[in-house]
Amino acid sequence: MITPTTDETSTRHLYVTRHGEATPDESGLTPGGRRQAALLGERLRGIPFAAIHHGPLPRAEQTATLISEALDSNPPLIRSAPAGDYIPYIPHKEELPRETADATLERLAQFPEAERENGPALAAEALSRFTGPLPGDEPRHELLVTHNFLTAWLVRAALDAPPARWLGLNHCNAALTVIRYTPGRPASLVFYNDMRHLPEELRWTGIPPELRA
Fold first, then answer.
1. How far is CA 96 from the centre of its chain?
2. Are 144 and 132 contacting, i.e. CB atoms less than 8 angstroms apart?
3. Kindly report the CA angle at 71 between 70 and 75, in degrees rounded to 5?
4. Do residues 173 and 29 lie in contact, with contact meaning Cβ atoms separated by under 8 Å?
5. How big, in percent rounded to 5, are the helix, strand and coil portions of the chain?
6. In what order do the strands lie in the sheet with 77-79?
7. Prediction pTM value
8. Are 86 and 126 in contact (CB under 8 A)?
């Protein structure tokens, strides 16, 4: 849990989304992914965003740009490595259910070495940069366009859950999660994985078929 300092007097509203549906080679967005991003931008129109943070990969950057184009305001687009795609935390075997521990660790070991080795430091920087109350007198609204793993990590942290509990949280493409950080109070998960702005055919993309509603 993040403990606010005496200088942190303003509430931060963090809007988190996973990028739109990506092409098979992950070089950008599918036509459906572009539509997802535009529809999310329409939903967010009217919110006075101070900034839009996004990861460095094309699918996140393109999503952030399309959302920005639909907004009434013109917040700066900020490209950020901590907003990228990486494994935030690799648990020890004893932190996992006995029945699935080996399979989970084997699956994580298949990810690129850079995502595994650099992930924990980037995840710590993400918590420092994107979460918690802020100095000032006015509430601040920020949008974070990122990936499934970091979204899960931020939600886990907001709920003050054990580090390994980021595993098992899944976020659909261009769905919306909002976390509120108010001085002197625990973080509040306002809502998670909300897809009301997407038509049925654009929902549940980016999530394993067996977990789709």
1. 23
2. no
3. 125
4. no
5. 40, 20, 45
6. 77-79, 49-54, 140-146, 12-18, 176-181, 188-194
7. 0.94
8. no
Structure tokens, 95: 């932190």
Taking the CB of residue 13, how many other CB atoms lie within 10 A of it?
Answer: 20
Q: Which residues make Cβ contacts (< 8 Å) with residue 100, sequence separation at least 6? A: none
Q: What is the pLDDT of residue 4?
A: 44
Asked if 128 and 12 touch (Cβ cutoff 8 Å), the reply is no
Residue 3 has pLDDT above 60, yes or no: no
| pLDDT tens profile 166-185 | 999 999 999 999 999 999 99
Closest C-alpha to 75, from 26, 128, 143: 143
Q: What is the pLDDT of residue 2?
A: 47
155: Cβ contacts below 8 Å, ≥ 6 apart = 166, 169, 177, 179, 189, 192
Contact 22, 29 (CB under 8 A): yes
